[in-house]
Task: inverse folding
DNA sequence: TGAAAATAGTATCAATTGTTACCAGTATGA
DNA sequence: TCATACTGGTAACAATTGATACTATTTTCA
């Protein structure tokens, strides 16, 4: 029987968040200095590059970003001429997002840098460990995504 | 040769942050509803329970929380009577933090809940996968902690 | 149809978080 | 020992983030 003592360093949610923040901070500051993009902004660029003509709503669903966050990022990117928005003829409340030529160019610069950064951070791990790691992340997502964690009042 | 295309869903820093946020949100809302504690506050409680008489500065170093965050959490906990602070005789700028009786009682309630929550989330994974997962997290920390990621201007 | 409910997106406001400036105390070393 | 530089902690401020309210449009169904 294992001792039921809580040690913060061994507490998995803490470990996970600690590591994740470490990585996010490193990446965020790299993007900020290299391209002047915040993380939400760079995520929009990436998602739109993959899915031309996507709507903000869909981006929010896909990335779990708040719709306000998405809206602000979209406005900022449009203001910088990286993004073009046109009314969605199928639903005039929403708009279709497309990268402008400049946006595509920027993306062309970002993508390899992002991959290089990823390699710098994760490249040291061997393929099997990495695959297992990703699989575990997905399993966690599945559990957390479906369950809820508030024990009925007691 | 692998195709060098960036797919957001396959981009590890993104996956990691996505999953971590999912878990953090679930945990944060559980603590908030059960005990009225924010994540920083609950971390302080945990760290102080483990290290009686620790200083804020040390907590910051250990958890990578900003010293202002630590300060606020400490003030809030003290205000709620969960924490006692006494001047550090060895260095009168700093204070030694100790849980009050109520604080220890609360911790006594929190700790098992936290472990239960952890089990709910990670219990589905088998031990080996879990150990590998933690090992990978630590390797990532080591890499990110030491390297810096801003390619010299180019 | 057309009135009521729902949705995409934005603006406004509130809360959280980080930055900077500061104060009290400590260490250094001329 | 006293001037200078440094550190722990907090206060005041700025920026970021999230919650709420609102507008324009679409969907539903009586």
Result:
């Amino acid at each position: 029987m294992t001792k039921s003592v809580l040690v913060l360093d061994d507490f998995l949610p803490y470990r996970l968040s600690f590591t994740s923040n470490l990585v996010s901070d490193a990446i965020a500051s790299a993007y900020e200095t290299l391209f002047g993009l915040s993380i939400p902004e760079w995520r929009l660029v990436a998602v739109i590059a993959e899915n031309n003509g996507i709507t903000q709503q869909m981006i929010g669903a896909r990335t779990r970003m708040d719709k306000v966050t998405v809206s602000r990022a979209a406005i900022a990117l449009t203001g910088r001429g990286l993004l073009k928005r046109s009314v969605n003829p199928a639903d005039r409340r929403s708009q279709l997002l497309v990268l402008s030529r400049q946006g595509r160019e920027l993306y062309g610069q970002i993508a390899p840098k992002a991959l290089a950064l990823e390699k710098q951070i994760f490249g040291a791990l061997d393929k099997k460990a990495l695959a297992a790691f990703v699989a575990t992340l997905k399993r966690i997502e599945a559990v957390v995504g479906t369950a809820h964690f508030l024990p009925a009042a007691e």
